[in-house]
Amino acid sequence: MKKRNTFIILMTILPWLSIPLLGVRTFKRFLPSVIFMNLYLVAEGRFAEKKKWWWFPFSVKPNVLAELPLIIGPFFVGSFWILKYTYGKFNLYLLANVIIDSLFTYLGMNWLKKIGYVSLVRLTKFQLSLVFLIKTFLLYGSQVLYEKCFNPSLK
User: For residue 15, what are the contacts with CB-CB under 8 A and spacing of at least 6?
Assistant: First the structure.
């Protein structure tokens, strides 16, 4: 249990150490889409909790999603890095996301289950891959929409 808690803390904090390497311009450019995506992930987490798509055998705090460390750690920071290097090159963006999401789904989920962090219940790994694919399109689409509507100078 202590190892799991240490892992959760590190999983949340370590990705943030790379934020200064992004650059201020990249951070400001993609922040609205990344925030949107993280709000979506929280809503999805609540929905998934009710539908029992996955199960976390503990809670971070009462009424706090147990996947919040994943959301505010690697998913939040990872979204910046993926957008930084692939935005404007949709095929590369899609390929990068499919590879990263597949690694998480087919390797990472096994390890997270083994350490007692999370396990799938009513969702297969293939279905989880489709859920990730939807998020891939939402993140990219939200950035395209943001730049078109609120920041046309970034085109």
Answer: 73, 74, 76, 77, 78
CB atoms within 10 A of CB 70: 22
At 140 the pLDDT is 98
pTM over 0.85: yes
Selection from 90, 100, 80, 86 nearest residue 29 by Cα: 80
pLDDT at 147 over 80: yes
**CA proximity to 147, closest of 90, 87, 95:** 87
Residue showing tokens 């990263």: 100
Rounded to an integer, what distance in angstroms lies between the CA atom of residue 95 and that of residue 77? 18
pLDDT of residue 123: 94
> Closest Cα to residue 118, out of 67, 69, 74?
67
Closest Cα to residue 83, out of 71, 100, 67, 70?
100
pLDDT in tens, 77-105: 999 999 999 999 999 999 999 999 999 99
Burial 129-138 (b: 16+ CB within 10 A, else e): beebeebbeb
